[in-house]
Please model this.
Amino acid sequence: MIEEKIRNLLEGVIRDNNYTLYKVEYVKENNMMFLRLYIDKEGIMDIEDCVTVSNLVNPILDKEDPIDESYILDVCSKGDND
Model:
């Protein structure tokens, strides 16, 4: 399952930077594939946290290339999924 593969690949670096990887989704919306990472941390989350995590995981995803098809990476706060 791709979500489990992504979690195993990224959870360590996310945790090492004081975030929690709450949920991983790989979904199709309007003919586009989205890899959606829901993250959380102690305190208040803001857009900069999402940008930070995106910048952390992008090089790993580029190097490891775990998904064969094109997709859009979307890093969101856990609150977006409550």
Summary: The mean pLDDT is 95.
